[in-house]
Amino acid sequence: MPSKSKAKGNRFERLVVDMSEDMGVPAKRAWGSNGASLGMHEEVDVLLNKKIKVQCKVRKNIAQWMLPNENVDIQVIKEDRGEPLAVLPFDTYLEMIKKIDKLE
Fold it and tell me: What pTM does this model have?
């Protein structure tokens, strides 16, 4: 039986795939959470739209300052000497993917 944290990670990866497919974005989970099974780097957990490589991380708590509040659509965060990162609801991100696909 896998560890509790591994099982939690597997459930989260399946949730990401299910949410994606429910929104009409094709998604495939890497077998054993190893992207090599998809022909990708081992850190890839899910492949969205056959081209977007996703690593899924689930934690008990996320720092509150990272989360977008109800007054904004996206939160941009950065560590010292790091690159800016965008934090937004996953369903909003999936909608963006669908809109981009229509433009191509």
Answer: 0.88
